[in-house]
Amino acid sequence: MKDSYKDSYEVVMNDSKNPLRRLPKVQRFQIMVFLSLMWSTVFCVAIGSYAFWGELVLGHLALAFGVLVTGVTFKVVDRRTRIDQSVKDNS
Fold this sequence. Notes:
Blueprint: H1 2-13, H2 25-48, H3 53-90
C-alpha cells in the first residue's frame, strides 16, 4: 500500500517519470510550473469556499477541472512525444 502511494506521487510529481519525461527539460519545467500554479489556484478556491454550499460546489468543480487539465496535458504530451519518437525511429 505504501509503495502505491509513492508510485502515484512519483508519476505526477517527478518529471523524469511522468509523460513529460520525453520533452526537453525547459519545456518540462514550464509545463510543471503551469500545472503547479493551476493546482495552487484550485486549492485556494476549494479551501476558501467552505463557508457556503455554492462556493463548496465551485471548489469541487475547480478540483475536477484541475484533474481534467492535468490528465489532458499528460495525455497530449505523451501522444505527441510518441509520434515524434516513432518518426525519428523510422528515419
